[in-house]
């Protein structure tokens, strides 16, 4: 039993412990307590949402897909037997490609929910690819958003990836957020909720994808590398693993478009980011970026002349 005078001391100790834990959580997840500054430009608002059948078709795992009654939202899931994927009906030579995605909470290690551009079916073994991948995790740890660029076979055989990874400033399991790629002849811009998080510029022809590509979405087992370098793998005791896609948007020049088709502007002025966009991107990289290949001293720098 506490003696008179002991209770305030115990309360003070408990309060001190609670404050210490709160500060520790802020240090572990600093970006969760902040929001990026407004980019001032919202390219997603310039395009209408598509019904799935207007822009896409099922590619694989049709038994692991369901379409909403209005035809605008697609649910994909992965279990021990299969994952699932879809593909744009047309090929493009540039454009805006976006989707609002919500991923599953809990144990999702090894699960890769991807939205990306690729031409791997057209150029097998020598393809180009632009990736946005939500990499699953274990309870208590955040999802990782990985952005990546492969050029003319750098994702085939001996892989030469150009990864930039983020722990986002929000919980991607709690609600839908819009992930988008603007791919133009001079640059690639990765956006989350219209906030630019990465710009990949065309510096040489050898390091920039310029052949036609299709847009894809998928969920698949990437246990060999996705979560902590493969330390944690997909555990099918927690299946099915579910990812939801909605607000699908495409705006750009298909390969059969007329020659006067113009790439989508990345900013109010056209190709150069505005000061507001630059500030928002700088915030995202300073507060949420956890890996950048150009800063990795273990990489062979001769393979990355753009760095």
UniProtKB/TrEMBL annotation:
Domain GH16: start-end pairs: 31-245
Enzyme's top EC category: transferase
A GO molecular function held by the record: hydrolase activity, hydrolyzing O-glycosyl compounds
Signal peptide: 1-33
Principal location: secreted
EC id: 2.4.1.207
GO cellular component terms listed in the entry, alphabetical order: apoplast
The record's account of how the chain is modified after translation: Contains at least one intrachain disulfide bond essential for its enzymatic activity.
Biological processes per GO annotation: cell wall biogenesis; cell wall organization; xyloglucan metabolic process
Active site: 129, 133
Keyword terms: Apoplast, Cell wall, Cell wall biogenesis/degradation, Disulfide bond, Glycosidase, Hydrolase, Secreted, Signal, Transferase
Subcellular location field: Secreted, Cell wall; Secreted, Extracellular space, Apoplast
A Pfam family reported for this protein in Swiss-Prot or TrEMBL: XET_C
Role summary: Catalyzes xyloglucan endohydrolysis (XEH) and/or endotransglycosylation (XET). Cleaves and religates xyloglucan polymers, an essential constituent of the primary cell wall, and thereby participates in cell wall construction of growing tissues.
Family to which this protein belongs: Belongs to the glycosyl hydrolase 16 family.
Record-given protein name: Xyloglucan endotransglucosylase/hydrolase
Organism: Digitaria exilis
């Amino acid at each position: 039993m506490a003696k008179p005078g002991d209770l305030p001391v115990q309360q003070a100790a408990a309060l001190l412990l609670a404050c210490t834990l709160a500060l520790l959580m802020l240090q572990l997840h600093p970006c969760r307590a902040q929001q990026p500054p407004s980019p001032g430009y919202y390219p997603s608002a310039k395009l209408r949402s598509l019904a799935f059948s207007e822009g896409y078709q099922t590619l694989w795992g049709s038994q692991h897909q369901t379409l909403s009654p209005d035809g605008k939202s697609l649910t994909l899931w992965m279990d021990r037997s299969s994952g699932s994927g879809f593909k744009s009906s047309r090929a493009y030579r540039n454009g805006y490609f976006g989707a609002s995605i919500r991923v599953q909470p809990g144990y999702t290690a090894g699960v890769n929910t991807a939205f990306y551009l690729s031409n791997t079916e057209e150029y097998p073994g020598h393809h180009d690819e632009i990736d946005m991948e939500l990499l699953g995790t274990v309870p208590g740890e955040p999802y990782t958003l990985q952005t990546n660029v492969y050029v003319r076979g750098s994702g085939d055989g001996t892989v030469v990836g150009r990864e930039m990874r983020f722990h986002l400033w929000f919980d991607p399991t709690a609600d839908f957020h819009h992930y988008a790629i603007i791919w133009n002849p001079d640059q690639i811009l990765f956006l989350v909720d219209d906030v630019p998080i990465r710009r990949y510029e065309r510096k040489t022809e050898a390091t920039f994808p310029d052949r036609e590509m299709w847009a894809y979405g998928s969920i698949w087992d990437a246990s060999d590398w996705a979560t902590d370098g493969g330390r944690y793998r997909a555990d099918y005791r927690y299946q099915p693993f579910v990812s939801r896609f909605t607000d699908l948007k495409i705006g750009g020049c298909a390969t059969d478009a007329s020659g006067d088709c113009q790439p989508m502007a990345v900013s109010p002025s056209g190709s150069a980011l505005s000061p507001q966009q630059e500030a928002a991107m700088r915030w995202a990289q300073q507060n949420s970026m956890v890996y950048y290949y150009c800063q990795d001293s273990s990489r062979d720098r001769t393979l990355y002349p753009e760095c």
